[in-house]
Design goal:
It is built from 18 helices and 5 strands. It is mostly helical. The chain folds into 2 domains: about 100 residues, EAL domain (TIM Barrel, Alpha-Beta Barrel), CATH 3.20.20; about 210 residues, Orthogonal Bundle (Hypothetical protein af1432). Strands 1-2-3-4-5 form a 5-stranded parallel sheet.
């Protein structure tokens, strides 16, 4: 897709260029669009038009949407920063939505994290402790029936090519290995939270894997980077301030400093990945990290995230079928 910026002149040369690109199969998106009759040739070629909620008044936004509905294109409402803006633009008929609100929901301060979620966070911390045995991890898993089911189902699945059957969480953990169990246990636990959109899980997995890949190239412990990236997304998943989530955890201080202050090697890796996600590509350079490396990690991590969620869906779908059969 080719994005046409708002300051590109509408003339015979640019129109011919866009027509040529359309002929080659590219789609055209108009960025920060503000209507002018002179821009109609661009509109007729466009597949997407992006309307900036911060750059248009409410009346202008409504009139732009109404006007663009007369063309064969999709309207993208961008820079959405509140639930009200999302619902309003959706009601007006916008097709796609972009903005800070969709990545980070409104944080409810002063609301304690439920005990079952603290237990889940303890499991994530325990998996990162090299001194924890499979039995100790299994004891934490045993507190949550749904987690036991998910872990044993995962261990017995054809995904790992095993023919034998695991009889207990401890057996499954010892055979699968702590790293694999950590990744899947974290996903299974986080996916069980109420009102957690699947997009947030995809985002969490992608950031965790991005941090892991970047860390491998810069002498930073890969599993620690994965953990750092994953925990840095918990404010979205738990809908609580990140500081309130991270500080009570029994984590080594290096993780807390990396997540909350972007300190140390882990903090630099996390900052570079978050900067890339936000389009601030010079953040990586500031830490001496190659932007191209972060870019490659970002797209590899997107595939990893999609694969993990596909396998999660297979497990949860089977669980739902069994539950219905039991009724």
């Amino acid at each position: 897709m080719i994005e046409v910026l708002e300051d590109i002149p509408v003339n015979s040369e640019t129109i011919a260029c866009l027509e040529r690109l359309k002929g080659l199969g590219y789609q055209i998106a108009l960025d920060d669009f503000v209507y002018a009759e002179s821009k109609l040739p661009f509109v007729r070629l466009a597949d997407y038009v992006k309307l900036d909620l911060r750059g248009l008044s409410a009346a202008e936004f409504r009139s732009h949407v109404k006007l663009l509905k007369g063309f064969r294109l999709k309207i993208v409402a961008e820079k959405i920063e509140s639930e009200e803006e999302f619902q309003t633009s959706r009601a007006l008929g916008c097709d796609l939505f972009q903005g800070y609100y969709l990545r980070k929901p409104e944080v409810l301060r002063g609301r304690p994290i439920p005990a079952n979620r603290l237990s889940a966070l303890s499991l994530l911390s325990a998996c990162m402790n090299p001194e924890q045995s499979a039995g100790a991890i299994a004891a934490i898993v045993a507190r949550d029936a749904s987690l036991i089911y998910g872990l044993l189902r995962l261990a017995n699945s054809a995904l790992y090519g095993r023919r034998g059957k695991f009889q207990s969480p401890a057996h499954a953990i010892s055979m699968l290995g702590m790293d694999r169990v950590f990744r899947w246990a974290s996903l299974l636990v986080l996916s069980g939270y109420d009102n957690c959109p699947i997009g947030y899980l995809a985002f969490a997995l992608q950031r965790a894997r991005s941090c892991e890949i970047v860390a491998q190239a810069y002498g930073c412990q890969a599993q620690s980077a994965y953990m750092t990236g994953l925990l840095s997304t918990l404010d979205s998943i738990l809908n609580a301030p990140l500081d309130d989530i991270i500080r009570p955890l029994p984590l080594d201080e290096q993780f807390k400093r990396a997540i909350l202050q972007r300190d140390g090697q882990l903090g630099s890796v996390l900052d570079a990945v978050i900067g890339y996600e936000a389009g601030q590509f010079d953040t990586a350079t500031h830490h001496g990290i190659s932007v191209h490396r972060v870019q490659a990690a970002f797209w590899e991590a997107a595939e990893y995230s999609a694969a993990m969620l596909t396998d999660l869906k297979a497990i949860t779908d089977l669980k739902a079928v069994k539950a219905n059969s039991a009724r």
